[in-house]
Structure formats: structure tokens, C-alpha cells
Amino acid sequence: MDDSGIVELYLNRDEAAIARTSEKYGQRLRSFSLGIVQDLQTAEECENDTYMAAWSSIPPHAPRDYFYAFLARITRHLSLNRCRERSRLKRSALVSELSAELEQCIPGGEDLDRRVDDRALAEAINGFLGALGEEKRNLFLRRYWYLDSIAAIAKRYGFSQSKVKTTLFRTRNQFRDYLKEEGYDI
Amino acid sequence: MNGEELLEKMGLADPAYVAAADRPPRKRKHGWVKYGIAAACLGLVLLASLLGMPGPANTFAVKAYALEEQADGTIGLKETDLLHQSDVWGGYYDGEYLYINVGLRYEGENIESVTFTTEEGFFAEQSISALSTGENVGRMYVGADNTLVLVGTEFEIVGSQVTLNGETMTDDLLLFWGMESETGVHPNKIEINAVATFRDGRTQEVPISLDLSSGAGLALFRKSPLSEEEEQQEAQQQGAETYAYYQSLPLEDCELIEDSVEAVTDVYEVPLGSVVTSIITLNEDMEFDEDGIWRGGPATSSDQVYIPVIRRNADGTYTGMVYRVPEELQYPQ
């Protein structure tokens, strides 16, 4: 069944929606979560919670065009929350590593004049992503949205790891400069 | 906001971008080397052959373009005769990838699209409108006509196949052929296949052979090595990244060196094995986190990374200790 059909099931409050979602995307969502939480049972819980969250949010949402991205965003949010709740003692090394990398994107200084809410931050993130070339944008999102390892990104795009690291490094600097120039104080 | 929160907020990215990043990348040929050529003399031979019998109204020809500076200082396209000119061509080598300006475009009637494919290497695009006309932007002029073939050094790799049509073949597009190269050495010949698809469904194929074996006019523009200041900045940035990483690494994921634990009253001599590698003096400027932990910068010994820690205890005393970072958690160099 195509994504649009599955979304229609949700909109019609047909419980088969969850089964169809699980059949089509269950493994990918579980795997995505597992990469973040590093624990199969927790990943399975995140996967199931994703279905419940999708059930609750469709409608009003009707993500016919980007259904997997919609689901994966929920899974990502739930998985990162699990990491946070699990206390810092067992926080995933990957999350720590990615957090440290993104820390470099946060501009400092006192000349920034506005603190941003989620809407403004979304505008900032998407403004920046829109200004990037497709390749850089995809690399940036693979790393900081899909939380892929450097090795996985290099393999996916046929780049050397060094090329990936260099590109990400430059893109992070661009992101920091962009936030600063646009006056976002995050 | 800290890095972890920003990581969470990256979830606000537009789902269209997120979905695009999840699509399988366009296939790229293995064995690309990372080198950029700046100018290459190309003896370029274009061999065209018709496959099938295109309709009488269907015509197709491959063209190639260089650049030219307009009167107002902006950069535009200039048609170049690839068939009869064994002139100099240009390219750029950035130390990793080699890019040669081939400027491929097409002309003809009733063409729906043209797909260029290369078995070796890849295509890369340059946006002409983004080419800066500033004084510090590198340019390359080649040949007797002083043809401008290269401006700037920013390219976007698009894969081993690129399809041009009425929408994508804009005046803003300049097409390069490229390859990964460790030494800057390029093949003697580049084979590109161009297939035009006409609106009536017929196709016409044109193999293109770029002969790079001739020594005439081969030019190579290489990326300048980093200046001392730039190298220093890069090293500082790398150091800051490494420091930030080890400052945020959960100590619970590291191995406590039992022998290193000792009460500290004034000075903690950081032991790595039997050697004292540094001395930490308690002072008022030390910032302890909410768990009473202060970390020093990472220390490296025999490929092992250690994090020295001072813990402020509930009773106001201090304890020094050293954690060993597991190999799999070491910051990638």
C-alpha cells in the first residue's frame, strides 16, 4: 500500500493503519531508533510509541507526501527523549558526540538580540538548509537528523571519511555564521 | 541552548529535505580519487553517431561552453568549438577531487531531455551566478584566445549521470567532469555518452571522447596550500572540537583508573601509568558541574586517551582521579 493509502486509513480512523505502517516501515523505524538508544527493547518501545503518536496526530496532520519522514521525526524525538530520561550515565556515546559537534554551531556574543522559539528556530534551520547545495544539505541531515555515523555517511555517498568530516566541519561553521549573521540567539 | 538541545531541534527540519536525504544517492563510480585539476589541455574529439532513425524534425547536437566576463563584470557562457579546437581547457584540483570544465550543453529540435553518462568519474555543476567577480577569486584563462575556463573553486558533485532539459539547462549552469585523485593524475581519455530523448519518444546517442593524452596546453590549477595562519586556525579549531567532545563524554562510559584515585588538598599529580604527566592545582576558577565534577583536558599516552577529573565531595573535600576513554569512544582524528 502506498503512503497516501496508509494516511487515508489513519484519517478514516481505521486501525489497520498501524498494521500497514508497521509492515512497511516498522523495521526501518526500529533500526533508526536502535542506532540512537542502543537497546533493542527500548527501540521496539519507541517504534510502538511512534505508531501511537501517529494515530494521535493524524488527523489533523495528513502527511501524504512525506509519511516516512513524518514517522521518523516522531521516532527520533522519542528516542532522544529516552536517552535523556535514561540519565546521563547511559547516554549514548553517539548522542554525546553529535551534541558536542552541534555545540560548535551555537553562536556566542552579546550582540545577538533575539531568543528564538521553535517556530523561529525552524525558520532558521530551514533557511540555512535551503541555502546549502543538495549534497551538503543531505550530508548535514544524514549526520544531525538521521544521526548516521561518519563511516555510514561515507559509505552511502561513496566519499572518504575525511571528505565527510571536512564537509561537515565546514557546514557546521557555516551554520554558526548563519545563525549569528541572522541574529538568532539560541 | 546546548548542543544536545540543538540536536533535538534539528527535528524541525523541513520534511521535504529530510525525505530527500533519505533517498538513495545517485550512483557514483568507485575508485574516484580526490584531486582537482585546474586547467587541462584537452584535445577533444567529438564522435557522433546516430542510433536508430530520428524523425526528420528531430535534431540534436552537443555543444560545449567556456566562460566569458561580461562588460558589467558578471560571468556568462561562451560557446566553444570542441570538435575542431585542440585548445587548452581548464580545471581545478583541490587536493582531493579533480574538476575539468567540459561545459556540456545541447542544441536541437524537439528534444525532451539529454542524459550525459560517464563510466569513470562524475559530473559536477557550478552555478555561474554564484561565481564571484571579486579580486580574490581565482580565474584561469587558456589558449590563444585567452578563453576564461575557470572561475572560483566551488563545485557540486551530481553523480555519474546528469540529465539536462529545458528546465535544468539554464544559463546559470556550467558542467564539469571530475574524478577523485590522490596525485592529480588524470586518465588519458574521458568517455562520455550523450543520449537525447525526443518528444516523439525516439532517441539519439552521441558518444563523446575527450582526449587528454596530448601534452599541448594542459593546465592544472591546484589549490593553494594552507598558510601558516590558516593551519594554525585549523589546528586550534580541531583542538577546540576535541576538548569539547571529551568535556561532554559521559564518564560512566569510561574506565576509572582505580590507582589514580586519591584525596586532593591542594595539588593533584595526574598519574598515567607510573608517570606523572601533569599537575592540577585547585583554584577558585575551577568550574564544577552540578555533580561536583571538574574535568581537565584530555591527555594522550600510548594511543590511549585519559581524562583527569577532580570531584568536589559533599563534605567539601576533593578527590582526584583519571578515566581512560575506551578506544571506540576516542574522538576521531
Give the CATH level 1 class of the largest domain in chain A.
Answer: Mainly Alpha
User: What is the CATH architecture descriptor of the largest domain in chain A?
Assistant: Orthogonal Bundle
Number of helical regions of chain A: 9
The SSE string of chain A, one letter per element, is HHHHHEHHHHE
Strand content of chain B: 35-45%
Q: How far apart, in Å, are the first and last alpha carbons of chain B?
A: 27 Å
How many angstroms does the end-to-end distance of chain A come to? Answer: 42 Å
Integer average pLDDT of chain B: 76
Order of strands, widest sheet of chain B: 11-8-13-5-4-16
List keywords for this structure.
heterodimer; A: 186 residues; mainly alpha; Rna Polymerase Sigma Factor, Chain: A; Arc Repressor Mutant, subunit A; 2 domains; two-stranded parallel ribbon; 2 strands; 72% helix; 2% strand; B: 333 residues; mainly beta; 6-stranded mixed beta sheet; 6-stranded antiparallel beta sheet; 3 helices; 24 strands; elongated
Structural notes for this entry:
The complex is a heterodimer of chains A (186) and B (333). Chain A is mostly helical. Chain A folds into two domains: 3-90, Rna Polymerase Sigma Factor, Chain: A (Orthogonal Bundle); 98-185, Arc Repressor Mutant, subunit A (Orthogonal Bundle). Chain A has nine helices and two strands; from the N terminus they run αααααβααααβ. Chain A has helices at residues 3-11, 16-37, 40-57, 67-85, 93-103, 118-131, 134-144, 150-157, 161-181; strands at residues 114-115, 184-185. In chain A, strands 1-2 form a two-stranded parallel ribbon. Chain A is globular, with a radius of gyration of 18 Å. The N and C termini of chain A lie far apart (42 Å). Mean pLDDT of chain A is 83; it is low at 109-114. The longest helix of chain B is centred in the last third of the chain and has 21 residues, at 228-248. Chain B is mostly beta strands and 333 residues long. Chain B has a six-stranded mixed sheet with strand order 11-8-13-5-4-16, with no helix packed on it. In chain B, strands 17, 18, 21, 22, 23 and 24 form a six-stranded antiparallel sheet that branches. In chain B, a hairpin with a 4-residue loop joins strand 9 and strand 10 (147-151). Chain B has two domains: 26-222, no CATH class; 228-329, no CATH class. Classes of the chains: A mainly alpha (186), B mainly beta (333).
